[in-house]
Amino acid sequence: MNLKNSKTTNVNTSYSGEFERTPVPKAKLKSWTSFLGIYAGEHAAGTEFLIGPLFLTAGVSAFDLIVGLLLGNFLAVLSWRFLTAEIAIKYRLTLYYQLEKICGKKLVIVYNLANGILFCFLAGSMITVSATAVGIPFNMPMPKLTDTMPNGLTWIGIVIFIGIVISIIAARGYNTVTKAANWMAPLIVTGFILCGIVALKQLNVKSFTDFYNIWGEGTEPFPGQIKYTFWHVVIWSWFANAAMHIGMSDLSVFRFAKKSSAGWTTAAGMYIGHFMAWISAALLYAVYLKSPEALAILNQGEAPPVAPGPLAYNAIGVFGILVVVLAGWTTANPTIYRAGLAFQAVFPKLTTSKVTFLAGLVATIAGIFPAFAMKLLSFVALYGFILAPIGAIIVFEHFFAKKYRIIENYAEIKGLNFNKSVLYAWALSFGIFYFLSVQFNIFLSFLTLPAWLFCGVLYLIFSYYFHK
C-alpha cells in the first residue's frame, strides 16, 4: 500500500480486518484462549510427525531426547513471552510494517520476499505431510528420506488438491485461521496421544525402563544423518522456531493480544506439540523400524522412509489418516498467513487475501518436492539462522535505543528507503557465522544465538555512528 495515500490505506485496512499498516485497535484484541488454540494447533501438527522420527534417525539417546526437549522448549517459551509478546503489545504492528519503519521500504521488501519464500517452503513441507495420509487409499508410493523429486502423478495431484484447500482457508484471514486451529487442535492432540499409547503397546512397553530403553544410550545415526547429543536437542528445540520468537515474526500474531502474558500460551505448543507429539511420533517410527520392511532397508545401508501417513495409519487406522491431514493443515494455515503478510508488503496493490492465496500456491509447488520435508531438521535450522538476526534489530532498538541515543524508527523519521545500518549488521552476522559453520562443520543451530546477538550489537554500533 502507498504510504502517501493514508486515506486509501485506512480503507483497505478496515476492509481486510488485518490491520497491516496500523496498530490493532483495542476493540479487536483477543483473549489468551485464542492464542492457546492457535499455538496448540500449529505446534501439535504436521512437523511433529516428521521431527519425532528424524530424532531417531540422528541416533539420539533417551536422556538427551527427554531432558533436552524439556529444557529447549522452556527456553523457547521464555523467548516468546519476554521478547516477542512484550514488544508486540507495545506497538501492535506486524513484523513487516515495524521493520519498514526501521529499515526503509526498499530494504524491507528484500527481507519480506525472503521471509515469505522461506515460510512457503515450510508450509510446503506440511502439505507433503498431509499428502502422505491422503495417498494411502490410492496405494501411492511414499517419498524416501533421500527423495527430492515427486515420485508420480498421483503424488502431484494430491499435493495440489490439499494445497489449494489450505490456501483458501489461509486467505480468509486471521479469524478463520484461528477458528480452524481451535477446531482441529483437540482432534490432533487426541490423535497424538492415541498414537503414543498404541505404539507403546506395540513395543511391549510395561515400565519406564522399557520406555527408556527404546532410545537407551542412543545409536549411530542413519546414513546421511548427523549424530545428535544433549546440546543438539536443547539448542535445536529452542531455535526450531527462532524466526517466530527471537526473529519477531510472531509480532504479527501477538499484536492481537490483550496482555503480554498471552505469550505463556506458547507452552501449549511446546509441551503438547514439541514434547509429547515429538515423542509419540518417534514411538510410531520405532515400531516401524522393527518391521521386516524397515530391517531389509537398513540391511541395504539405507534409511527407512519417514512417511507420517502410514505410520499413523498403522497405529490408529483411518483416524490416523484424518489426524495427519489435519496436522498438516494446522501448521500450513498460519504459516501461509504469515507468508501472505510478507508478500503483501512486496505487492502492496494486491489485497491481503490475494497475496495469501498466492503464497499458498507457492507453498503447494514446494510441497510437490519432498526434499523440504525429508530434510526438515536441516531446513528449519537454516531458516531460523537466516531470519532470526533481523529480529535482533527490533529487540535491541526496543530495549537499548534510548540508553545509547539511537534514533528509533530511523527510516520513517528521515524518509529513507534504505537503512544501511541494518544491512551491514545482518550481512556481517550472517556471513561470519555461516562461514564458521561451513568451514569448521559446526551445527548451524549452535550459531543462531551468537549471530543474533552479534547482529543486534552491530546495529547499535552502526546506528550510533551513521544516524544523524
TrEMBL record:
Entry protein name: Membrane protein
Parts of the chain that traverse the membrane: 65-89, 109-133, 153-171, 183-203, 228-247, 268-288, 311-334, 355-374, 380-401, 422-443, 449-466
GO MF terms held by the record: cytosine transmembrane transporter activity
InterPro entries membership: CodB
One GO cellular component, as annotated: plasma membrane
Protein species of origin: Neotamlana sedimentorum
Keywords carried by this UniProt record: Membrane, Transmembrane, Transmembrane helix
